[in-house]
Every structure is written in structure tokens, then in C-alpha cells.
Amino acid sequence: MSGTSRSLSTKGHNPMTEATQTKADGGASGHEGVARGSGVTLWRQIAQRLEEEIHSGVLKPGARLPVEAELSETFGVNRHTLRRALAHLAEQGLIEATAGRGTFVKEPPLRYPIGARTRFSEIVSAGGREPFGRFLGSKVEDACPDVARELAVPEGTPVLRIESIHEADGVPISFGTAWFPHARLRDLDLVYAATGSLTRALATLGIEDYRRRETRITARPANGREIELLSLAPGRAVLVLERLDVEPNGVPLQWGRSSFAADRVQLVFKA
Amino acid sequence: MSGTSRSLSTKGHNPMTEATQTKADGGASGHEGVARGSGVTLWRQIAQRLEEEIHSGVLKPGARLPVEAELSETFGVNRHTLRRALAHLAEQGLIEATAGRGTFVKEPPLRYPIGARTRFSEIVSAGGREPFGRFLGSKVEDACPDVARELAVPEGTPVLRIESIHEADGVPISFGTAWFPHARLRDLDLVYAATGSLTRALATLGIEDYRRRETRITARPANGREIELLSLAPGRAVLVLERLDVEPNGVPLQWGRSSFAADRVQLVFKA
DNA sequence: CTAAATTTGTTCGTATGTATC
DNA sequence: TGATACATACGAACAAATTTA
To answer: Would you say the C-beta of B78 is within 7 Å of strand D?
Structure first.
């Protein structure tokens, strides 16, 4: 049976409101397909209908939905009922509504698998998009305490710092800084700037293989630099990803910190 | 040598400003330890000094730093110079400043390793903290399309939905919803509510082992519910973690979506 | 609830040393 | 050498957020 609710100990309001089902009943309807008294709530039927249209491609990413008043009319329900359906879709990340602008189908996030062999270019290519690494700048500096610790070199050792933006089909996905042992990778930055691919730049310098040792993830609101470089709206979140890559023999190759436009990627870890 | 800069193609401003060093020169100083003309910029010296005090425990998590005016005076520098040092520490996540309130040493985030055997209680215990799962509510409902797909059951199959908050030492860490096949796990919610541990509740029902199959991660600004349940400041980010756990034989056991207070955890993936 | 005080955040201006062309 | 750009550092004032009286 559906609808058995057991709610305990929630001082204040019940957190289960989102999923409550009602056996609403109208009269003889058949307005625009929503079946009253079918055992399935109206808002669920509407949400499912819209979800199908999005997944089937009738409603394409970026498309604007009709205004709520119009939608509620075509479905033959109250605007509140329609809004509940939209709220459900918004929670799932399928649509996004902005007051005064309208409701839009969101671009599907780039599935970004993280694993021992994570390579940006391969991930993006696998998604049928065109990867590009835009070189921003580089410099040789003395390893500060945390970089020295991660790269397992003495503090003050010269390290090569590279900043870059990663794009997929011209849309900025992430931006970040990576540090490399300078002794091992002299002029990596020049090669990277020329090729736009770290994997290829490393290969040019004789490093054919490396693997991810650790990935650490946090998130926070985007700062000014991220807003600018990733074309984000103020207040949006970024995923901050710290990573350590090592050569096959275990020697640290690069440590870096990147900011990902959180609503354009979904990091995926398979166990 | 330190300071070799190779900056290209950055229309506008230079992204490498943070790391440039200058050989500034003052006079015969010795004010409060900052050495003018030592080859290291004043703000770097200050940043490093404060970082040491934080790491050594002189400045404990949650401690409030002296106000900028006072700090700049004790270091014998202009307030701008001090602020540059603070900005560096804030970027590293060591401190956090709020207008009107002050500057505080941040609590180190809970390292939250994600792997095939991720168990909330074990993670928190390993960090020397006391884990607690607070049961919020549950209900039996018909599987909606996405839950059905993830749990590999037909749409409409009864599933048990459980909402809960996870705390470490009483501080809310995450809050989320998980769906379980109801047929297999009748009354799981009651046992969970009683024990406060999902692992133990599952064991009680005869499920001794399970493993993580996939973890998907995005992030976004916290919504009203998250702000309330996780005691977040508006505008803060949450990490949204979708996970699928399966039994040893590969049968889906639970699928869920949780929101983590992004500034209280750091998800760690080891390859 | 309002007003004042406190504290961080932002912007303008000035000057100086260093690196680059 | 000179011109230019850039990073550092100091000074003053004001804006915005928060706490306190």
C-alpha cells in the first residue's frame, strides 16, 4: 500500500511533505490527460509527463517552458498543483526557474568520472564534446608548505605552477592551478600552452603514464574570479577538487586545486 | 630561481598576481618580527606566521583573531598588507572573515572517505567524533521513475523512503533521503529510528554486508530546508551526493540523495 | 525596535622597487 | 638607458554587515 507514514520526533514541521500522496478526486474530467482519481496525484502525473518530454527531447536543454499560468491551464489544474510538479523537477535538477525570467530546461551536466585514469580530454570526448585546455599563465616559484607536503619535496624547492581553464564545446567547465616538480618538468608550461592538452604535453616530455592517487572534494559559493572565468552567476556553487597524480613508480607528478562549475558537472565515482 | 613568470594571452588582468615576490626594502626594522628587505614579501611572512600558529594549535579552531587594525599594528604593517595575508589564508580555507563579526579560524573539515565500504558511523568514529543518525521520518510509497530505475524495480513497486540527518559530535553533517526495496526491508525504518545507525539496523534485518556501487556528486547553494536542518548560513554551498549501495550479490539495496554541509566535510576518494 | 559602535569590505590616491621590452 | 607594466606597500575615507547598548 502507498502512503503509510511514520513520522517521529521532528519538532516543528514534517520533513516528508514533498512525497505525500493524496487521493484527490474531481469530477468527470479528462481535461488534458491528467486522470483525477486514478490513485496517482495530479502533480506526479504532470511531473512525469514533463520529465518524459525532457528526456525524449521534445523539450530541449535551454528551452523555456510556457509560463505557469498557461501550463496550469493546459493541464487543467490549479497553479499550485502545477508548481508542485515543477518543484519536483527542479529538485531533480531537470529545470530551473528564475523569478521574472521564466522556467528553463537545464543543460544536462557533464558526467565526469573520477578514477585512477581520469583524463579531462577523454572524459569530454566520451561525452561527444570537444575538450580544450586554455593556458592562462605559469610561473616557477618556491614550494610553499602545503605544495611541498603534497609533492613530497622540501619546502622551497622550485615548482612549476600552471593555471588553466578547461572547456567542453567552448563552455568553461573548470579552472584551476596545478603544481609540478620543476626539475622533472622544465618547460611543461610552454608545451601545454601550445598543445592545449596536459596529457599530450606530458607525453612530449616523456611521461606516458600517470595515475590519480587521491581526490578531495569540497564546495563553496563561487568567488569573483570563478564567477568571471567560469561565466557563473553570483552565488552559484563551485566544486573544489584537490587531486594528487603520481607516476607509475609512485612519485608525485602534480598536485592541484580546481574549481568546477557545479551546475555543469556531475562527478561520478565507481567503486 | 623563484619568480620566473610566463604569462600569455590573458586579455585583461594577470591571473598570477597571488604568487609574485618582490624584493621590497624598508629601513632598519625589527618591529614585530616581520623582516623588511629580506627578499620575502611582508604579507607572505605574516601569512606564514599565522599559518604556523593555526597548525601548531596556538590559534585553535573557532578562535577569533584580533581585529585587522590590531593585527596590522602588532605586525607593524598597513592594514592592506595584513589583509593580503588574511586573504591568502582564507583562500586556503584556514580562516573565514565576516563583516561585522570578525575573523575566525575554521574548524578543519571532517575527512569523509568515499569507497566501497563507506559507513558513516565508522568515518566519524575514525575522526574521533561521535556519530549519530537522527531519524526524521519515513513512508512507504510507490517507486517513481528515477528511484525505480536506480533500484532496478518496476515503476510503482512499493519502496521504503527514509529521511534522516547525520551528525558528528552533535554538529549536523548531512541530511538526505534514501529509498529501499520495501519487500526486502519491512520495518527497517523502525529499527533505524531506534538504533540511530543504518548499519546496525540493516544487520538486525539480516543484511550484514553491502558495498557502494556508484557515487555521483554535484553542488549548489543550500535551499531553505537545508539551511534549517544543517544550520547553514544562507548562500552557503551543499554537496549533493547520490549513491547506490548493492548487496554482495549485486542486488540494489538502497539509493539515496544526501546534502552535505560543504564547509564541514571534505570528501576523499582514494584510487 | 532603534541607534550607536564595531568590524570587515571596497575604493580612491600615492609612492617605490623590479622586471620587461 | 628609458619607457612601461606590474606587484608591493602605505594612507585615508566610506560602505556594508553585525553586534551591542
So the answer is: yes
